[in-house]
Amino acid sequence: MTAPCDPGIIAAWGSFGENSGPLPEFTHETGCTTLAYAFHALALMAFPGKLRHGDTARRKPALTGVLRILVIEDDPDTAAYIASGLTAAGHRVETATTGDDGLRRLAQSSYDVIVVDRMLPGIDGLGVVKAMRAAADHTAVLFLTALGGLDDRVAGLDAGGDDYLAKPFAFAELAARVAALGRRNQVNLAATVLRLGDLEINLLTRTARRAGRLIDLLPREFQILEYLARNAGQLVTRTMLLEHVWEFHFDPQTTLVETHMSRLRAKVDKDFDYPLIHTVRGAGYSLHAPD
Amino acid sequence: MPRIDLFRTASFRIGLFYAGLFSVSVAMLFVVIYLGTTGYTARQITVRVEQEIAALQAKYRVNGRADVVTEITERIAAGSGAYYRLTTKAGQVLAGNLGPTQARSGWVDVHAAETGDHIRAQGVGLPDGSFLIVGVNATRLDELDQRVVQAFLWGTIATLILAVGGAVLMAGVSSRRIEAICSATEEIMAGNLTRRIPIDGSHDEFDRLAAQVNLMLERIESLMRGLQQVSNDIAHDLKTPLTRMRQRLELARYRATSVSAFEDAVDQAIDECDTTLRTFDALLRIAQIEAGTRRSGFQRVDLSALVDTVFTAYQPVAEESGHRLTVALPSGAMIRGDPELIIQMIFNLIENALKHTPAGSRIGLRLDETAGRWCLSIDDDGPGIPAAHRDKVFQRFYRLDPSRSTGGNGLGLSLVAAVAQLHGASIALSDNAPGLRIAITFAADAPVAPPDP
Q: Which of A24, B91, B121, B272 could bridge B245 with an S-S bond, Cβ 3.0-4.6 Å?
């Protein structure tokens, strides 16, 4: 089932950046029931920086563009969880419950990102993506895989998937990955210099300057900064960093990311006017210039 | 004890087979003995008779029949032991001590009327038409013949009785041993895992078999106990966060007065959920690794590069926690394996060392080659693991600290063991005096390539 709330709620959520008031007001105003509260909680997870009274209250709206998303998931609860959360994040979401249904929708209209479960009745997730790729449909695909599925990632990527996420996942993780996939189409991959505020990252010389001063970075630190800059303004989660920077496809349960980030931060932010690297509590990091 | 069907026991069948075999060999023995004794004597008789005839024929050729008569008379008088009879063509007896017989050339058996002796004789016609017959008493030969045959018969009977009796006895003994094994296994199947197969100390093959089966039972029992322990630990490890979660949610349900208090309770509940899910995830991952399906995706892996990657990633973490992480690596240690799992294994080894050594400890990663095998080792100068616990630390959920208050889910080293096993690598824990050393030696069949130029 999809979100029963009226578009007004979504509009209200879309303007959360400016809404610093306490949440109950919001809930009471709209008069939505428990489901609305659930959406609310999802929105909290998707944009913890904005909604919590945390260390990074000041943030630009996380999503610069509205994405058209197709969710192919047979479990109605999970489908509703994903669809309502992504809708709350401002995207336009459609759901399909079988592989055949998904393929039918893909033939009818186009999407920016497909979220597809691996296990589906009829044509499974792998089949759907293989069929898409065979039909030269290069829409970004995020696979959802079962808990502990060691081989699922490789099989999913082999079939033509672009990213994968093991169930159960934190909603912020899904939202961040969907956003990164949606953004992929808009990023100029040929760019040789990335700029953000007074930060300048030269991808050819592998050097970074801030306010004209060269920042002395280790190769790994440069990779982190580059990945954050490519996803500037977006939430980048711990696991996204682990996968893209270190290529570790498991959760090491250590302070590895935190340690490297705090070192990078000391070099990039410490001696300058304003911070560029922001912590999104309980979710990850975001690189963005002040408003 | 159930009745044993004698004919169905292997030992009885073997016994019968040997009884048959023995009978055949007794028969062969009889043939040899018979030919050696009776046959020899019979041949001697033949020779003797033929010699006598030849001698008498020689006499006849020199001086005629009269000399033969004289010679026969002399020989009888001298007690030669042979029997003679010389008759004219008309059948008149000229000389001899043998009773009347047919005048027929060739061998003939004559029975002496008065003594009942058996005389083996040969008749031969002389050129003038008279007929000579010479014989030797063969009664002793007949007796010998009879004795040998009797001995053979008795021997065969004794052999058969012994063989069948032995087979029955053997079948009984082995069946009793088998019965003992069966009753022990039945008891084990009924649930008494501590039961063992009895060993009677005879050091026979049954004892060897029983000892072997007992070793297997020992292993099964320890695995079962481990399994029980694991299920208990899973229940415990998963119950604890769920209990905490429930308490917090209930408390929030009745006590929380502000939205932020509710939020905190929900956040904590989500954290507890995540912890539980991570434990499940780790368990499933270990089970998947142990299933061995990942082996099909093995590739050539630069072990040096993997260790170096993890080392560089971890060094700042170790520094933050006040540990000194060092590495000693040759380059280009190539093995066949799964890079993702090997990385996770190295991760878990370092994480384990960081977790169980105090700040200020040194942790060393090494890669050495011995006899074409690569050995990855990690050592520290922390408190180490007592020898008695060393082989248990790879069990799921095993923790030295019984209160389970130290962090981690107790699955880190289980995963290390599973990955090592998948790669056919052996793990050894040893005392680093002070501290712990864990050495993982990869199988020799992983080809060791020379370092890249």
A: B272
What is the reported pLDDT for A31? 35
Specify the CATH number for the domain of residue B25: 3.30.450
Structure token pair of residue A208: 């970074």
Q: A189 and A95, same structural domain?
A: yes
Enclosing domain of residue A257:
217-287
User: In total, how many domains does chain B have?
Assistant: 3
Could you list the residue range(s) of the whole structural domain that residue B362 is in?
Answer: 291-443
- Output the domain CATH number for residue A186: 3.40.50.2300
pLDDT digits (tens, 9 = 90+) for B291-329: 887 888 888 999 999 999 999 999 999 999 999 999 999
Per cent of chain B over pLDDT 70 is 95
Instruction: Confirm if B50 and B168 have CB atoms less than 8 A apart.
Output: no
- Judge whether residue A62 has pLDDT over 60: no
B192: in domain? no
CB contact under 8 A, B284 and A253: no
- Please tell me the predicted confidence (pLDDT) of residue A37: 42
| Claim to verify: residue A169 and residue A118 sit in the same structural domain | yes
A248 to chain B, closest Cα gap in Å? 7
A270 within some domain: yes
Give the ipTM: 0.72
Are residue B263 and residue B305 in the same domain, yes or no?
no
Q: Which residue of B has its CA nearest to A250?
A: B344
A148 neighbourhood in chain B, CB within 8 Å? 280-285, 287-288
B280 → closest Cβ in A147, A255, A256 = A147
Who's near A8: CB < 8 A, 6+ residues apart?
A30
A35-44 mean pLDDT = 44
- The reply to whether residue A252 touches residue B320, judged by beta carbons under 8 angstroms, is no
How far is CA B394 from each of CA A114, A193, A204, B217, B399, rounded to the nearest angstrom?
41, 49, 47, 21, 9
Are both B15 and B85 inside the same structural domain?
yes
Task: Return residues 237-276 of A near B (CB < 8 Å).
Answer: 246, 248-256, 259-260, 263
Q: Is A29 in the B-facing interface, judged by CB distances under 8 Å?
A: no
Listed residues A161, A193, A225: the one ending a domain: A193
Asked if A290 reaches chain B (Cβ–Cβ under 8 Å), the answer is: no
Q: Tell me, letter by letter, the H, E, C secondary structure of B377-442.
A: EEEECCCCCCHHHHHHCCCCCCCCCCCCCCCCCCCHHHHHHHHHHHCCCEEEEEECCCCEEEEEEC
B122 close to B98: Cβ distance less than 8 angstroms? no
Task: For residue B97, give the H/E element and its range.
Answer: none
Quick check: A199 pLDDT over 50?
yes
Instruction: Determine, yes or no, domain membership for A43.
Output: no
Q: How sure is the predictor about A188, in pLDDT bands with cuts at 50, 70 and 90? A: low
Confidence label for A268 from pLDDT (cuts 50, 70 and 90):
very high
* Residue B406 banded pLDDT, cuts 50, 70, 90: low
